[in-house]
Amino acid sequence: MKTEAGRRKEREQSTMTLADRLGADIEAKLLAKKRALAEEQQRQRAAEEARRREEARRRDERKSFAELLEESELDWRKFK
């Protein structure tokens, strides 16, 4: 049979978080790594977006007049 002190100790142990179980230095390292990974992902997304914009710009530069006219929403009948 467990005593009140034993039950209290079990409750305290069950409510411990991961941060409580890890040392403060390990927790700080993990948080720093998390921030670094998030920043790296943000940089990669920005670089990918810039690459896509550049590709779209280059495609637009290489389009012929017929392609540009075909994509245009202007209708010559409106200006007749």
From TrEMBL:
Pfam families: DUF3886 (PF13025)
Stretches with biased composition (Basic and acidic residues): 1-13
Region (Disordered): 1-20, 41-63
Protein name per UniProt: DUF3886 domain-containing protein
Organism expressing this protein natively: Geobacillus icigianus
